[in-house]
């Protein structure tokens, strides 16, 4: 069963409330994982360094370190092994370097941090989704235990990399569901290619038959994905669902109408390169979601951040 052993939580230590901390602490307890809590202080611009008091930067770091340790004491009291650190540099890059250096297998943070309660995914979130080599769990405003987990898959994918990613998404969603005693749904958004154009070239009955054939093929493919999962599955808690329409809009509507707490999905469309682009479909979906997201990349993903680089 996929599980986590070393969880990295990125928070703003100066904020008063830390819902992401509660979620990470709960997950670490369920997995028996070690937890490391970090905050990132960006390097001061050269101009600021010339005019600000010399002790300001060290005081800023020291204050955040103290706040992190206060959180860590609560976690240790709950029986979790916890470490803390204040990282320096560009936030996303600093987090990824910590992952590479310390071998974390999950990054957690509250999405849209510092950008308002209704914000979705901010620039730091976007960079982690594109570049972080391990799964990234972005926690939504509710930050509750996931009671309904959805694995958003492309059941009709032909590419072997995407097919393998689908299987890993399902295994991960099932593992998270088992940890939290959650309902798990495998969700596939389907459509008929060129349906609007076909309306002017087919009779109503012919088009209806074409739509039904496409739907059945999608349903069969989704069933095949469930049958191929390597995760021991309780069939009473693992459901299959199809939504018709463009993936970004169809998945958003499903999430909002089915009380979904966590969406497990893939994010990268191009693999094997150090210059990675997030898939257009994944990006459109992410822009529309307000719930928590657990994002996974293909096994062939090459992280563009290096420990020996200057930036």
Write the layout of secondary structure elements.
Blueprint: E1 6-10, H1 19-31, E2 34-41, H2 46-51, H3 54-77, E3 82-88, H4 91-102, E4 106-110, H5 123-131, E5 136-139, E6 148-152, H6 160-180, E7 183-190, H7 195-198, H8 204-227, E8 238-244, H9 247-257, E9 262-266, H10 280-288, E10 292-296
Parallel strand pairs: 1-2, 1-4, 2-3, 4-5, 6-7, 6-9, 7-8, 9-10
Antiparallel strand pairs: 5-10
Helix pairs in contact: 4-5, 9-10
- Note the beta-strand portion: 15-25%
Give the spatial strand order of the biggest sheet: 3-2-1-4-5-10-9-6-7-8
Q: Provide the helix percentage.
A: 40-55%
CATH architecture identity of the largest domain: 3-Layer(aba) Sandwich
List the total number of helices: 10
Walkthrough of the structure:
With 311 residues, the chain is of the alpha/beta class. The chain has two domains: 1-141, Rossmann fold, CATH 3.40.50; 144-311, Rossmann fold. The chain contains ten helices and ten strands. The chain has a ten-stranded mixed beta sheet, with helices on both faces. α4 (91-102) runs parallel beside α5 (123-131) and α9 (247-257) runs parallel beside α10. The longest helix has 24 residues, at 54-77. The chain starts with 5 loop residues before the first strand and ends in a 15-residue tail after the last strand.
